[in-house]
Amino acid sequence: MPAPDTAVSPSLTVAASAPAEAVSPGASAPVVTQTSVEQPAAQLGFSHFIAQTDVVGQSLFVILVLMSLASWALIVTKGVALFQRQRRSQAFLNFFWNATSLEAVQHEIATHGVTEPFAHLTSHAMHAQAHHARFGAAKLEEAGSAQEFLTRTIKKVLDEDTMRMESGLSVLATIGATAPFVGLFGTVWGVYHALLAIGATGAGTLDKVAGPVGEALIMTGVGLAVAIPAVMAYNWLTRSNRVWGARLDAFAFELFTFLSTGQTLKGSQPGEVGEAANVRAIKPTAKS
Predict the structure, then answer these.
(1) Least confident of 31-45, 121-135, 151-165
(2) 3-state DSSP call for residue 172?
(3) Which of 14, 97, 171, 200 has a CA-to-CA distance to 116 between 20 and 30 Å?
(4) How confident is the model at residue 227 (pLDDT cuts 50, 70, 90)?
(5) What is the 3-state secondary structure (H, E, C) of 48-61?
(6) DSSP code per residue over 251-283
């Protein structure tokens, strides 16, 4: 007598295992989906762009960093120098206009030295007058009258001080003008490589394009972050130098008048409004 047929057909086996297989993927599906979403999001960012870009992109980023460091170094250095120059110049001008004679000004300069443009100009002008009165036109650069020699000396000192105040401003202007375009070039380079990757994979969906293009656009932001402070500092320093340069020119004219014609300093003493204190010209040292 044949044994009862207890074998299970393959179709029944598949049907019986189907519910178990359906439950397992359903339980693990949220974990897989969450991991697949979080992993690309964690990889995106500027550091990812720098790590993935080539030598050209990294070189552009290094150039922008160096430009930023140079601009901020100039901004801090020139800003501190401008503040000190304004404070010292104002103190010297207050002393000069309240001095009783140019000899007192000369003594003050010899005692405390020259630390700002106005004292520098006064010192050279007084030295030029005393030198020409003592030695005359001994050399070609000293040719002409005493007033002509004094005029050339004042003009030379003004040019030196102007060049000293404007030093470094061309670097700020260059950084402010070129940094945005360096960043834009980095953006174009990054987008170019992103498009090459999209073309190689054949996937042009938004999730494939948004990350690489967004990372590349960061280079434009870096370029603007470098350029904006440089431009603002350049305008600020240029205006400040122009203002103090105008004041220095006006002071040079007054100083030339005092040294060449012996005009008076008005209102040098408190309570003497409208009166004048005589300005004595520097006594030339006797020739040895």
Answers:
(1) 31-45
(2) helix
(3) 171
(4) very high
(5) HHHHHCCHHHHHHH
(6) HHHHHHHHHHH---EET-STT-TT-EE--PPPP
